[in-house]
Write the structure tokens for this entry.
Amino acid sequence: MELFPGNNSQHGSPEIKAQIFNKIVKVMHLSTSDTLLDVGSGDGYYSSKFAEVCGNVIAIDQYADGSKNDFYANLSIEFICEDACAWIAHNQLDKVTQLFFSNSFHDMRCQDVILKSFSNKLTNGAYLTMIEFKLDTLFGPPKSIRLSKEELKEKVESYGFIEEASIDLAMHYFISFKLVK
């Protein structure tokens, strides 16, 4: 069964992603002075859209196949093919002003480690934005690793972030946090 016509990806066709992007970009506080880190960037769709509004985009994904996608053709996107947990732990993030996860945080085996790194390494006022599967969505990761919006909020806020915005999407939810030190 094809979940999205013309695209077998559970994460959606470019048309579905465009609808999501157009909703979330309005509340993300993005500017040309931002450096955005797209963690688990996949096919690069969101990275390419963020490159249109941010000064610098770093896309990190452990699977190099995605980097061959045309979405990564924008020269202002730096693609890093590495495990995000290791990369975040070993790199300075002081220039990163925006963090973005789309359907990837639930897969991170190092959630608490990277949240602590973000809290310690990012400057006050940095944003952490996430799109995750709703618990009752019929496709996606196993329900045992999904986080409800409330669970995610509790986890992230325990590291010094506060919720700035949230949007209820059809099969996902969007939530944005700001680091307050």
